[in-house]
Amino acid sequence: MDVVNDDLWKQFWYPVAFVDELGDGPQQRIVCGTHIVVWATGDGVAAAKDRCPHRDAALSQGWISDGCLVCPYHGWEWRNDGSLRAVPQTPERSSFPAKYQLDHVECAVYSGAVWVCLDTSAGYAIPPVPDGGVEGWRHVREFDEVWATSPARLMENSVDPAHTTFVHKESFGYLADPVMPPPEVERTPWGLRMTNEVRVMNPEISRISTGVSDDETVRRTTTEVYVPFLRVSSIDYPSGTRHRIVTAATPIDNEHLRLVQWAVRNDTEADAPASDVVAFDRQVTHEDKLLLEAITAPYDPDLQASVHVATDRASVELRRLYNGLITGEWAPVTGAVPATASSSA
C-alpha cells in the first residue's frame, strides 16, 4: 500500500490537529507525503500546501495578522481562501494574478478536530464519528502524535481481539485465559464492524475509567472501521460506563502516521476526571506503539502475505476491503457530514 504515490488515499478526509492547537499559530502537517499548512481564521480554519509561491518558504513558519497568513520570508499575506492580500514590497498593489494564490486544501472542523482532504473529487465524507455534542455525553481530548508505523497496520491492530491479552498484559490483558471466541464481523457501507466480549483485568489505573471497582471485569467492544484509516471503539462496562474512542491514523507516508485520538463518554468529570481517563488510555496506546513500531516488514494487505487463525476474522476482512479499494471493486459510501454537525454517541 503506497499512500504517497497512489492518489487513491488522497481522496479521504483525515484529522490533522485539534482546533485549539491552532491558537499558537499556523501548523505544518504532512498527509500522504504532502506538506500542508493549517491555520485558524477569524471564523474557522483554512489549509493550503505549505509553500509560498514567491520563494518556496514554508508558510507554517509564519504567523497570523488580521486573520491572514503571513509568510516568514518576505511578509506576504494571504486570505483564508488562499488569495493574496498584500505584498509589503509593493504596497501600492491591491490585486494580483491567480498564480500568486496559495494551493488551497479543503478543510473543515468536526468533533473538535481539523480535517483535511487533498482531493475531494470522489465525494467521500467525513465519517460521522461520536463528538460529545449529544446531551449526556462529553468530549475528552487525548493524543495528537506521530507513530513510526503504517496506518493500515494500526487499523489491523485495532480489530485484533487476541492481541489484547499479551500486548496489554500490564494494563488490562487477562493472561489467565488467552483463549477467546472469534469476533462477530460484518461489512458496513463504510468498512466493517467487529463485536467481541472478553474478561479483562481492572488494575487501579483503569478503575476510574471503567467505573468498576473489582479486580476483573467484562469488556464488550464494538469496533467500527471507517476505511481507510479511522476506528471508533465503543466499550461498554457492567457499571454502565460507556467509553467511545475515536482513533484516526492519518497517513504521513508509508512508514509513519499521525495518531489523532479523542474519547466520548457518558459520565461526568466528577465521576472520572479527564486526566485519569487519558492516563489509562495513554498506557494502552503506548503498549501498542512499542509493539507496532518494532515491526520492520512493510504492511502488505495480500491475504497470502501472512498466515491466519480463526480470531483473525476481522483482520482478514479488513485486508479484503483494502484490496477491493485498491482494485476498484469496492468503495465506501459518499456524502457529506456538515462541519458543525453533532453525531450520535
Give a summary of the structure in a few sentences.
The chain is an alpha+beta fold and 345 residues long. Helices cover 16% and strands 32% of the residues.
Number of distinct helices: 5
**What is the total tally of β strands?**
17
The share of residues in helices is 10-25%
Kindly report how far apart the N and C termini lie: 32 Å
What does this molecule look like?
This protein has 345 residues and is of the alpha+beta class. The chain contains 5 helices and 17 strands. The strands form 3 sheets. A 7-stranded antiparallel sheet has the order 11-17-16-15-14-13-12. Strand 9 and strand 10 form a beta hairpin. The longest helix is centred in the C-terminal third of the chain and has 20 residues. It is globular and about 75 Å long. The two termini are 32 Å apart. 39% of the residues are buried. The C terminus is likely disordered.
Name its key features.
345 residues, alpha+beta, 5 helices, 16% helix, globular, disordered C terminus
Strand and helix map with partners:
Elements: E1 14-18, E2 27-31, E3 34-40, E4 45-49, E5 63-65, E6 68-70, E7 77-78, E8 84-86, E9 104-110, E10 113-117, E11 138-147, H1 151-158, H2 163-167, E12 184-188, E13 191-201, H3 204-210, E14 216-226, E15 230-236, E16 242-253, E17 256-265, H4 274-293, H5 313-327
Helix pairs in contact: 3-4
